[in-house]
Amino acid sequence: MTTSWLRGAAILVLALLTPSRGHAQPIEQPKLTLSIGTFIISYLPLPVADAKGFFKSQGLDVTIQNFGASGAKALQSLIGGSSDVVVGFYDHTVQMQAEGQDVRCVILLNRNPGIALAVRDDLAATIKKPKDLKGMKIGVTGPGSSTDFLLRYLLVRAGVKPEDVSIIGVGSGASAVAAMENKSIDAVMNYDPAITVLERRKLAHVMVDGRTSEGSAAAFGGPYPASCLYSTGAFIAKNPVTIQRLVNAFAKALTWIDKTPPGEIAAALPKEYGLGDPTLFAEVIGHSKPMFPAKGTFDPKDLERARSVLSEFNEKVRATKIRLEDTYTNRFVEAATQ
């Protein structure tokens, strides 16, 4: 009897001392600001987590700040202290390490970039490959964005110096479509749903397609880690329960996307995410589903690919000894409640 009581007491003490994956621990910062440059299909887990109430179920009050510009704006807000966390591209963490800033990803949201380089249809007969873009005006979401980074990589690999073209910030979505429609640019490096809209309207022809695993491998040599949830190393260290709750919410979103039909996903989100065309949005989601991992862990081999791509045109990245292990962590994903 005494032995059983002691054993039971020991189990109770052990249970009280063992963290329960975040829920029994107080949230350091339940109200926080999460920023994005603009909505692109790569960021789909964010509106899903918001619309499905996954943030609220984790005890979080998340204000989403959409700059309607590029990922560089969201990154700047993080470094400047007006945002707590960002949904943006992994390559920004590599860029920031080269700048002496500690920024780390805590969950991977895409295994390929979902990006495409498209030329205006009326120029497609003469501009067939990236090497033909010399002297052209090319739209990106914004200066310092991942569209800017990956465009520069494709140009350099094709033997074209970035200064031999005009790189212009045009945003994404409707603004990117309008820039091609009014012919203020000759080509565009952008994401869905804008790229699919351009194709449907016969405004653009895709010449480099990173929206699929096959296209990403052809353009970048294999899987290219794209969007993720990131923050500063200091914020992560100071607020581990908050970060765990955020990762839990995004992990739930990835699982839900993986198991849910595209039409149901589109119907769960506000109409503005689909550029006013729910049928087209559902189709885009269907084509894009392979880019979203069921579990958002990072593969170090893929992270090395991102570093190599940046080093092709970024002198600071090329000259800096980048510690990839300081650009991400898998520990929150591995502990996430599903």
Task: Walk me through the topology.
Elements: H1 2-17, E1 31-36, H2 45-51, H3 54-57, E2 61-66, H4 71-80, E3 85-89, H5 91-98, E4 103-108, E5 115-120, E6 137-140, H6 146-157, E7 166-169, H7 173-181, E8 187-191, H8 194-200, E9 204-210, H9 213-220, E10 227-232, H10 233-238, H11 240-259, H12 262-268, H13 278-288, H14 300-311, H15 315-319, H16 331-335
Parallel strand pairs: 1-2, 1-3, 6-7, 6-8
Antiparallel strand pairs: 3-10, 4-10, 5-8, 5-9
Short description:
By secondary structure, the chain is an alpha/beta fold.
Task: Give the helix proportion (percent range).
Answer: 40-55%
CATH class descriptor of the largest domain: Alpha Beta
Q: CATH superfamily of the largest domain, please?
A: Periplasmic binding protein-like II
Quaternary structure type: single chain
Largest sheet: 5 strands, mixed
Taken from the alpha-carbon principal axes, the silhouette is globular
> In sequence order, what are the helices and strands, one letter per element?
HEHHEHEHEEEHEHEHEHEHHHHHHH
- For the termini, the CA-CA separation is 39 Å
